């Protein structure tokens, strides 16, 4: 297992890229800068399979929509997080499909 930490977004939250020996990757909490995360994936020849959202704060999920658009990866989160990214009123992060 391999891992890279990328501080992203306005608060520089840690986004983790984790991948196996077959270069299948997962992004954990892509809180911003989806173009930079996608460029890192491409540079390192990683195929993003999944995006994991640990909780619903904007600094951990604002980059999800852009990363989904760039990679078509599936998004996973716990039921406790689901109301936030699913677009409850007043929340900034509601622009991506959930699995």
CATH topology type: Metallo-beta-lactamase, Chain A
Tally the beta strands. 5
**CATH homologous superfamily label:** Ribonuclease Z/Hydroxyacylglutathione hydrolase-like
What integer is the average pLDDT?
84
Overview of the molecule:
The structure is a single chain. By secondary structure, the chain is α/β, with parallel strands linked by helices. It is 22% helix and 30% strand. It has one domain: Ribonuclease Z/Hydroxyacylglutathione hydrolase-like (Metallo-beta-lactamase, Chain A, 4-Layer Sandwich). A five-stranded mixed β-sheet has the order 1-2-3-4-5. Helix 1 crosses helix 3. The longest helix has 10 residues. The two termini are 24 Å apart.
For this entry, give a set of tags.
single chain, 99 residues, alpha/beta, Metallo-beta-lactamase, Chain A, 5-stranded mixed beta sheet, 3 helices
Write the layout of secondary structure elements.
Blueprint: E1 2-8, E2 13-19, E3 24-28, H1 34-43, E4 47-53, H2 58-61, H3 64-71, E5 74-77
Parallel strand pairs: 3-4, 4-5
Antiparallel strand pairs: 1-2, 2-3
Helix pairs in contact: 1-3
């Amino acid at each position: 297992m391999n891992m890279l930490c990328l501080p992203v977004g306005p608060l520089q939250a840690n986004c983790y890229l984790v991948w196996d020996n077959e270069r299948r990757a997962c992004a954990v909490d892509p809180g911003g800068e989806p173009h930079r995360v996608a460029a890192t994936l491409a540079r390192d020849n990683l195929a993003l399979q999944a995006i994991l959202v640990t909780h619903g704060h904007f600094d951990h999920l604002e980059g999800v929509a852009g990363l989904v658009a760039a990679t078509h990866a599936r998004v996973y989160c716990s039921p406790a997080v689901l109301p936030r990214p699913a677009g409850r009123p007043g929340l900034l992060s509601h622009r991506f499909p959930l699995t």
